[in-house]
Amino acid sequence: MSPSAPLDALVVAAGRGTRLQSAEDTAPKQYLPLGPRPVLAWTLLALAACAELRRIQVVIHADDGPLYAAALDTLPPALRARLAPPVTGGDTRQASVRLGLEALAAAGSAAGARDGHQLEDGGAPAFVLIHDAARPFLPLAVIERMLAAFADGHEAVLAALPVHDTLKRANSGGVATGTVDRQGLWAAQTPQGFAFPRILAAHRAAAAAGLTGFTDDTSLAEWAGLSVKLVEGAADAYKITTRADLLRARADAARVPAGLPQDASAMTDWSAYPDIRVATGYDVHAFEPGDAVILGGIAVPHERKLAGHSDADVVLHALTDAILGAIADRDIGAHFPPSDPKWKGAASDQFLIHALDLLAARGGKVAHLDVTIVCEAPKIGPVRDAMRERIAEICALPLGRVSVKATTSERLGFTGRKEGIAALATATVRLPAGQDEA
Ligand SMILES: Nc1ccn([C@@H]2O[C@H](COP(=O)(O)OP(=O)(O)OP(=O)(O)O)[C@@H](O)[C@H]2O)c(=O)n1
Ligand SMILES: C[C@](O)(CO)[C@H](O)COP(=O)(O)O
């Protein structure tokens, strides 16, 4: 995939959610609320985090026009402008995907003419990511792994997770009849990404052959002879299928900092945030005996660990202070006193999330984060990207807005003597006008 090859997403949202629906629910699962917005709106926000994505085609049920319109009302204009007019789906997921693909193909032949919609059609895409509306919390890192696979020349790419549970086959009476070898088994998620002409042809061929039973697009692609490349999916990209999944999603939505959906920066109209603030944070922790340090939210194997009341993650602590600095709201110690036993051994992502919540409460957004780690060891280069990904995930930021750097202090001072690690962070945040109160 060349950087300029047009990439579109297709979101299938025409199902009825029969495995979840009960008397309590007034709508199919993709329109049920998860905090401030329905499932489908979260899904679109997550996809829109991908700056390379040109347009999103949603496939809806013929009965769901008003529900779809209400879902769109919860989204910012910048995102709505990237949506093609919705098209009506079919009786199966397979049929809905095919109808969505046909709409994207038709965009190629009727550029700019559909429904007088403001979106510049610009032709059919070169690549398409097909995604379930029912998977609202797709991390941007998964999309980035898929784009990397396209760039490596793969024409069909599946986000999937290795199966870790022992698998049983059972009879209709619920009695085990055998154990399935899980070696080499993966659970398919979405997105599933394809060279657009290849998946369109495959779906057309399956329909022409009267084959209607494909539960996902990569099984159809395999049938059509495409080789499917697996990339690592994410536990967070789970599908809402049952009521238990819905309750899990409601809890997850509550943990996402208010006003900071997953693509907060990618979709932001920054002109609405004229108050630009840059603040710094600094933290130091000493080494003590151990076998790994926690840095930037990940465990880095090392001959020592960092001593501290919490997990002693200097990187997340420095970032937390930088964000608190930008909103002039004291420092991490004031919010999370080391004297409070509650924070003993605490994972530091919660400190950072608290600072992000305070920023969001003022209507603000993070524009950029930059950290410098000062230590002789461990080596930061090999874990830099994992650290960036974890920070981006915690802060709901695109990866391109998170920077991690490292330096030694030339064997000078306490870091040079390998007595501990220091981290310096800079946060650039943007706020709406009028946030001057102390
Ligand atoms: N005719 C269909 C069936 C499913 N889907 C979409 O495909 C995704 C994955 O399907 P699934 O979880 O099975 O959704 P439902 O079919 O709605 O659920 P159920 O099988 O419980 O009825 C969902 O986003 C769903 O809206 C669709 O667009 N058209
Ligand atoms: C596409 C899919 O979400 C991949 O896991 C899945 O196949 C949808 O099928 P379901 O059986 O209807 O959940």
TrEMBL record:
GO MF annotations in UniProt: 2-C-methyl-D-erythritol 2,4-cyclodiphosphate synthase activity; 2-C-methyl-D-erythritol 4-phosphate cytidylyltransferase activity; metal ion binding
Cofactor list: a divalent metal cation
Pfam families to which the protein is assigned, alphabetical: IspD, YgbB
Gene3D superfamilies recorded: 2-C-methyl-D-erythritol 2,4-cyclodiphosphate synthase, Spore Coat Polysaccharide Biosynthesis Protein SpsA, Chain A
Residues flagged as site, Transition state stabilizer: R19, K29, H309, T408
Recorded metabolic or biological pathway in which this protein acts: Isoprenoid biosynthesis; isopentenyl diphosphate biosynthesis via DXP pathway; isopentenyl diphosphate from 1-deoxy-D-xylulose 5-phosphate: step 4/6; Isoprenoid biosynthesis; isopentenyl diphosphate biosynthesis via DXP pathway; isopentenyl diphosphate from 1-deoxy-D-xylulose 5-phosphate: step 2/6
Record domain 2-C-methyl-D-erythritol 2,4-cyclodiphosphate synthase: where: 276-429
One example of a Gene Ontology biological process annotation: isopentenyl diphosphate biosynthetic process, methylerythritol 4-phosphate pathway
Binding site for 4-CDP-2-C-methyl-D-erythritol 2-phosphate: D283, V284, H285, H309, S310, D331, I332, G333, T407, T408, S409, E410, F414, R417
Enzymatic reactions: 4-CDP-2-C-methyl-D-erythritol 2-phosphate = 2-C-methyl-D-erythritol 2,4-cyclic diphosphate + CMP; 2-C-methyl-D-erythritol 4-phosphate + CTP + H(+) = 4-CDP-2-C-methyl-D-erythritol + diphosphate
Keywords annotated in UniProt: Isoprene biosynthesis, Lyase, Metal-binding, Multifunctional enzyme, Nucleotidyltransferase, Transferase
Region annotated 2-C-methyl-D-erythritol 4-phosphate cytidylyltransferase, chain positions: 1-276
Segments of this protein annotated with the region 2-C-methyl-D-erythritol 2,4-cyclodiphosphate synthase: 277-438
InterPro entries per UniProt: IspD, IspD/F, IspD/TarI, ISPD_synthase_CS, MECDP_synthase, MECDP_synthase_CS, MECDP_synthase_sf, Nucleotide-diphossugar_trans
Positions with a binding annotation for a divalent metal cation: D283, H285, H317
EC number: 2.7.7.60, 4.6.1.12
Residues the UniProt record annotates as site (Positions MEP for the nucleophilic attack): R182, K239
Role according to the record: Bifunctional enzyme that catalyzes the formation of 4-diphosphocytidyl-2-C-methyl-D-erythritol from CTP and 2-C-methyl-D-erythritol 4-phosphate (MEP) (IspD), and catalyzes the conversion of 4-diphosphocytidyl-2-C-methyl-D-erythritol 2-phosphate (CDP-ME2P) to 2-C-methyl-D-erythritol 2,4-cyclodiphosphate (ME-CPP) with a corresponding release of cytidine 5-monophosphate (CMP) (IspF).
Family the entry assigns: In the N-terminal section; belongs to the IspD/TarI cytidylyltransferase family. IspD subfamily.
Name of the protein in question: Bifunctional enzyme IspD/IspF
Gene: ispDF
